[in-house]
């Protein structure tokens, strides 16, 4: 393995492919355990391979190649999951009573973002800040708690309560 890693570090793509193929099942199982579907797991694997190829020169100890590459894979999975959590927030605005915010053919993201910001301005600042940090800046709850100097439970509560208020505000404005 050490020879293959050294070759890969010198730019030998075949050596890198061989290293990855030796553990491809383990890589796939790891990605699938995070992503929960085959296509997303494969996408995360592809992104991991690109990252490993681009940064293999930063690997200091050849014997740590597999743990290093698995760390990259986990980080790719987490990044994709965070990205999809942002999409879930946007999708929540696509269900009644938020359906009218979009045209049926094409979503104008700039207008949608302005509408979301307008709604965020109507809830408490701590709730709006927590929602922005979580869904628009991809921060995890612990990081948000550190930034806001509050417990993680408070952050969860602010996000949950804020989202409920946003939904009721939008429903009230549409119907009221």
From TrEMBL:
Residues 19-86 form the RNA polymerase sigma-70 region domain. CDD domains: Sigma70_r4 (cd06171). Residues 114-166 form the RNA polymerase sigma factor 70 region 4 type domain. It comes from the Bacteria. The keyword Metal-binding does not apply. GO terms for biological process: DNA-templated transcription initiation. GO terms for molecular function: DNA binding; sigma factor activity. Keywords: Sigma factor, Transcription, Transcription regulation. Belongs to the sigma-70 factor family. ECF subfamily. This is RNA polymerase sigma-70 factor (ECF subfamily). It comes from Saliterribacillus persicus.
